[in-house]
Automatic annotation (TrEMBL):
One GO-annotated biological process of the protein: DNA replication
Subcellular location as annotated: Cytoplasm
Main location: cytoplasm
Gene transcribed to yield this protein: recF
Pfam families tied to this protein: SMC_N (PF02463)
Protein name: DNA replication and repair protein RecF
UniProt superkingdom: Bacteria
Keywords assigned: ATP-binding, Cytoplasm, DNA damage, DNA repair, DNA replication, DNA-binding, Nucleotide-binding, SOS response
Annotated GO CC locations: cytoplasm
Protein family according to the UniProt entry: Belongs to the RecF family.
Length: 365
């Protein structure tokens, strides 16, 4: 899978932009605040219809304009695909896939599959659990429509329950009305998350071993907020009992304290928790292994080679990790943003397409 072309109108600082891409390597070069990450954001938008930078669609509309437009052409294993996104500041965005209107975001899932790797991702090991949950949700949601729908339903019910918990008077019987649905969707989320972490654990472990020349063994573990069991029926029972036991605490804190919205995952290097006791180098190697493992996971699950966006991440990695990253990515289309052309990169990718960006336009050099 690779992206062939993008067209932008009034997107961020791009007024009218069109670019054909190389099917393997594209180096996007420019000074800070010229539009490199904006271009990466537009590419990513074609994957799940959402930005990785903001929750407000209106942020992506060029200043003093009221509508932005993104069109991405991609080549999959056997067919072409086209995604068109119109963002209107006064109404919901409109998404079309191959000319047909997408009525639910889940209809866009598993079409153009993209992995984003930014400096923030290097902090995934040491950051708070929310960052790791977002990683799990983002990667599963873009290849499994069932997960996306389940997560959306869970969040909707959770919001309703939490809103009620903020009332002056809360009735346990009313809370139980939301509990049954929370248990249903939450238990399914837990099962899919556990399988995902088990699967990606194998890929990331192999990659981490290669990066460290076999000196370190990486193990990922699912850390659920409530006890996890394989039986779906038993899982729902455990979840329901956990919610009931936490009624008093939930009412006191005015929020739902039990459920997969509090899940986490742990990284162990040679059996030692990397978040608490790992060096910065080990934590970054864990993050790199995890990101590359996503591509292996995507290939196994979908049969497609995922597209990798490297947004200003090369400068954050040492020479050894950069070399491993470069060597590992010859089968995927990659987009790399940088403030200047790195000889190490051009030597590694002599046929790469170099795209110079200045103030949202192609700079002729």
């Amino acid at each position: 899978m690779y992206i062939k072309k993008i067209e932008l109108k009034n997107f961020r600082n791009y007024e009218d932009f069109s670019m054909d891409f190389d099917k393997k390597v594209n180096l996007i070069v420019g000074e800070n605040a010229q539009g490199k990450t904006n271009l990466i954001e537009a590419i990513y938008l074609s994957s799940i219809g959402r930005s990785f930078r903001t929750n407000r669609d209106s942020d992506m509309i060029k200043f003093d304009d009221d509508r932005a437009y993104v069109k991405v052409y991609a080549q999959k294993e056997v067919i072409d695909t086209k995604v068109e996104i119109t963002i209107n500041g006064k109404s919901k965005k409109s998404i079309k896939k191959d000319g047909s209107l997408v009525r639910k975001t889940s209809e866009l899932i598993d079409n153009i599959i993209i992995v984003i790797f930014s400096p923030e991702d290097l902090k995934i090991v040491k950051d708070e659990p929310e960052k790791r949950r977002k990683f799990i949700d983002r990667e599963l949601a873009q290849i499994k429509p069932a997960y996306y729908d389940c997560l959306s339903n869970y969040k909707k019910i959770l919001l309703q329950r939490n809103t009620y918990l903020k009332e002056d008077y809360v009735d346990n019987k009313v809370l139980s009305v939301w509990d049954s649905q929370l248990v249903r969707y939450g238990s399914d989320l837990m099962k899919m998350r556990k399988k995902f972490i088990d699967d990606i654990n194998v890929f990331s472990g192999n990659i981490h071993s290669s990066i460290t020349n076999g000196k370190e063994k990486l193990t990922l573990k699912y850390v659920p907020n409530i006890d996890y069991v394989e039986s779906s029926e038993e899982q729902r029972k455990i979840f329901e009992e956990s919610l009931q036991k936490s009624y008093d605490n939930d009412i006191k804190l005015r929020t739902t304290t039990k459920g997969p919205h509090k899940d986490d995952m742990s990284f162990f290097v040679n059996g030692i928790n990397a978040r608490n006791f790992g060096s910065q180098g080990q934590q970054r190697t864990c993050a790199l292994s995890l990101k590359l493992a996503e591509l292996d996971f995507i290939k196994e699950e979908t049969g497609e080679t995922g597209i990798l966006l490297l947004d200003d991440v090369m400068s954050e990695l040492d020479k050894e990790r950069r070399k491993y990253l470069v060597d590992a990515l010859h089968n995927n289309q990659i987009f790399i943003t940088a403030t200047d052309i790195d000889k190490e990169l051009t030597d590694s990718y002599p046929e790469a397409k170099i795209i110079n960006i200045e103030k949202g336009k192609i700079k002729i050099v």
